[in-house]
Amino acid sequence: MTITDPKTLVLRGARLVTPVGLIENRSLLIEDGLITRIDDDERLRAAGPVLVLDGQTVWPGFIDVHIHGAVGIDVMTATVDELAHIGEFLARSGVTTWLPTLVPGADSEYKHANNSIEELMKRQEDLQPAARAVGVHYEGPFVNTNQCGALRTQFFRTFTNVADLEPIVFPQVEGARRMMTLAPEIEGGVALVAELVRRGWVISIGHTRAGVDVLDAARNAGARHMTHFPNAMAPLHHRSPGPIGWGLLEDDVTVDLIADGVHCDPLMIKLVMRCKSSERFSLISDSVSPTGLGDGDYRVWGETITVRQGKTSNERGSIAGSVITMRDAVNMMLSLGIPEFEVARIASLNPARLLGLDSVCGSIEVGKRADLTALDSACNVSLCVVGGRIAAR
Question: In 3D, which of 332, 190, 204 has the Cα closest to residue 258?
Answer without folding.
Answer: 332
